Structure formats: structure tokens, C-alpha cells
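Give me the fold.
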Amino acid sequence: MSSANTNGHAYWEDYMNHVRANLKENPKKPHFRLDVEFDGRAPALDDITKIENLKAIARREFSQSKDLDNLARCAVASLFYFELESSPTYNREITQFQVKSVTDHL
């Protein structure tokens, strides 16, 4: 992708530099970018005649992608955890723990 309008790599690098600079605030949130490399120029964004070819290229590139596998694992894992809003408290009278969680992904 050589066009300034379609090349998001520079924006991605700026974003990741910002993320790395703020690791103390958000240390464990993974970030993913899946790129497709073209032989030659990328097709125009409005060239609908290339859609089937682009789908085939994407399937071929990502069928063996470790990045895509990692993304899928993170997506599935995010369904099975929660973040605590505060420390659990124990109620001795009824033998019960009270847990408050942040459920922003539900």
C-alpha cells in the first residue's frame, strides 16, 4: 500500500508509541494489526472488481498467521475473565465473599 490515504502503518506506529509511553496506565492490553502485502500497488478503495481477489489474498495470508491465532486466543480468553473493581470482602455472618467487577466488555 503506497498511497497516503491507504497506508495506516505510520498512524499505527504513532499509536503504538503512545501506548508504549503509557504502559503504566494500561500494561497488559494487547494490540494487533493485520496487514496484507500486495505484489505491486494496492487496488483503489472503490475498485469493487478486486473484492474476490482481495478476499483470496487475505485468506491465504492469514490462514497460517500466528498473529491471527494470537488475536483469536485473546478474544476467546477475554470472555472468561473479569477485572476486580475493589478487593473482595468477606462477610463472616453469612460466610460469603462480595466481589465487584468491571464488566466493560459485556
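The chain is about 35% helix and 10% strand.
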